[in-house]
Design goal:
The complex is a heterodimer. Chain A is an alpha/beta fold. In chain A, 36% of the residues lie in helices and 23% in strands. In chain A, helix 7 runs antiparallel to helix 8 (242-268). In chain B, helix 3 (42-55) packs across helix 12, helix 4 crosses helix 10 (186-203) and helix 4 crosses helix 11 (209-218). Classes of the chains: A alpha/beta, B mainly alpha.
């Protein structure tokens, strides 16, 4: 087996509670996930189960309480420089226009600005934002901001792409459009992707593998499914595939109980 | 003419009328000598202003000095507040250590520092600049401090993931974020720079509009005092308008309240 692009080994994350009760909260416990180079892995789980925590650990933004993160075999220290991270919330710098936001990563790396801008324009065309280079984030719609964030992440050509429910705030049409675009871009470059979502349909339609997480606290993977649907896929059409329906039923069988557990816990809290 | 324009004009009319009524009432009341002694006469006030700006043309030197003090205090106070705010905002240790002293320095009535600045910097413009700086500094400082503390964590994480090092985070995330907070306090800080300059002059100086007012007060020349007040008010309004223009230019990236998203 080739070396994993990103492997999380026995990750445990315990947070000190800040309500003064002295209790601590274990969000993730003994979780292991590994992603091969070029593999598209989705992680699904009930809301609030610590999916984002795992992703932040993989990004090097959060140091786990115990466990190891390896990036292409090397133990991760500090921010994961080989990864690009597409956040769930608004991450564009509001004082920069779209183009300057897209080229920010190149600028930080010291790329000459003429070259960076040229690449930036090309990426903006690629994500369908050609002609909107001078718009400020507040002048763009939610979908356009997501596209800009996508270009901003991918322009650095990261070997690992981390995505945290990137499209959850979009309407269903825009969402499917963007899912297909991401798949196309991924097919062309074949990078390792760790994709977090709470939407099982999205996970199956896009991934090579789906990992199901248990309800929190002490989240850990409880099931793994290889998605053997043919590629290239269209996220809207693939839903009618009989294999898709089978996989959906199988995964939902595992996920359902966790969702109910998570729901019951939230109601109690 | 649209309805709202008409309403606007009507409102302007009533606003001007109110001013005229007040001036006429003042003028009529000032026919009484006792009243005129304490409240001055509008016609005399106008004559003083006319003499200052046209016939004698001797106010420009004083006005220039007051404005120079204002601008210097504004620039020095803003830069110092920005630097200090960034430093304390980013360094938990320093802010924890200095917190009580900053609170104390901010609650101290700073006008009381004027005599000390007079001793340190003499009666020239620098003692006034120093006083005004103490007023501007804290406004900017607290805004920047707040601005640095409240940079959204997603924005920071995103910049870090895009490969920004500490210096780049400071330059491309913390400073722009803090600057937008500074701009939101520009109106207050320019106003306070002006106040500091005039109060400083009033407490001891050899030139400036505050000095003119002080002189007039010494000879019980209430008309000149009022003329000084009118001139200061007009220039305060002008400075404020200038700030609005600069603000519009520099903060074009900011959404304005009620502005729709352009697609």
């Amino acid at each position: 087996m080739p070396e994993a692009a990103l492997s999380l080994e026995n990750i445990t994350c315990t947070f000190a509670s800040n309500d003064g009760s002295g209790k601590s909260y274990t969000a993730v416990k003994e979780a292991s996930i590994s992603i091969a180079p070029g593999e598209f892995v989705s992680v699904v789980g009930p809301t609030g189960c610590g999916k984002s925590t795992l992703l932040n650990v993989g990004a090097g933004l959060l140091a786990p309480s115990s466990g190891k993160v390896r990036v292409f075999g090397q133990e991760l220290k500090g921010v994961n420089a080989r990864a690009g991270y597409m956040f769930q919330g608004e991450a564009l710098m509001p004082w920069r226009d779209a183009l300057s936001n897209v080229v920010a990563g190149l600028e930080f790396a010291g790329t000459p600005s003429a070259q960076a801008n040229e690449q930036g324009r090309e990426w903006m065309r690629r994500v369908g934002l050609g002609g909107f280079e001078n718009r400020y984030p507040h002048q763009m719609s939610g979908g356009m901001r997501k596209r800009a964030m996508l270009a901003q992440t991918l322009i650095r050509d990261p070997d690992i792409i981390l995505m945290d429910e990137p499209f959850s705030a979009l309407d269903i049409q825009t969402r499917q459009l963007m899912e297909n675009e991401v798949l196309d871009l991924w097919m062309a470059k074949r990078k390792a992707v760790l994709f977090i979502t709470h939407d099982l349909d999205e996970a199956i339609a896009m991934s090579d593998r789906v990992v199901v997480l248990s309800a929190g606290p002490a989240t850990h993977p409880i099931g793994e499914f290889t998605i053997d649907l043919p590629r290239p896929r269209d996220v809207a059409e693939v839903r009618n595939n009989s294999r898709f329906v089978e996989l959906h039923q199988a995964i939902w069988g595992v996920l359902r109980e966790e969702v109910l557990k998570g729901y019951a816990q939230q109601k109690r809290a | 003419m649209s309805n709202s324009q008409k309403n606007n004009l009507t409102l302007r009319f009533w606003q001007v009328l109110l001013l005229v009524v007040v001036l006429v009432a003042w003028h009529l009341a000032s026919a009484d000598n006792n009243f005129a002694f304490f409240f001055g006469q509008p016609v005399e006030v106008a004559k003083v202003i006319w003499a200052w700006f046209v016939t004698n043309a001797d106010i420009y030197r004083h006005l220039g000095i007051t404005l120079a003090e204002t601008v210097l205090a504004f620039v020095i106070g803003t830069v110092a507040g920005l630097a200090f705010g960034l430093w304390l905002g980013l360094s938990r240790g320093a802010s924890a250590l200095l917190d009580p002293y900053i609170t104390a320095a901010n609650s101290m009535p700073r006008v009381i520092l004027a005599p000390i600045f007079g001793m340190w910097f003499g009666l020239g413009i620098w003692s006034k600049v120093a006083l005004a700086v103490t007023l501007v500094f804290f406004i900017v400082f607290f805004n920047v401090y707040q601005g640095v503390r409240e940079v959204p964590s997603t924005l920071l994480d995103n910049a870090r993931m895009l490969g920004a090092n500490r210096k780049q985070l400071l330059r491309h995330v913390y400073i722009p974020s803090a600057t937008s907070w500074v701009f939101s306090s520009l109106h207050t800080s320019v106003g306070l720079a002006f106040v500091g300059a005039v109060v400083g002059e009033y407490l001891g100086s050899a030139s400036g509009v505050g000095y003119l007012i002080l002189q007039a007060e010494g000879t019980l020349d209430v008309n000149t005092v009022f003329a000084g007040i009118v001139v200061l008010t007009v220039f305060a309004l002008l400075l404020d308008g200038l700030v609005s223009v600069v603000e519009d230019r520099l903060l074009s990236w900011k959404p304005k309240a009620g502005e729709t998203e352009k697609l």
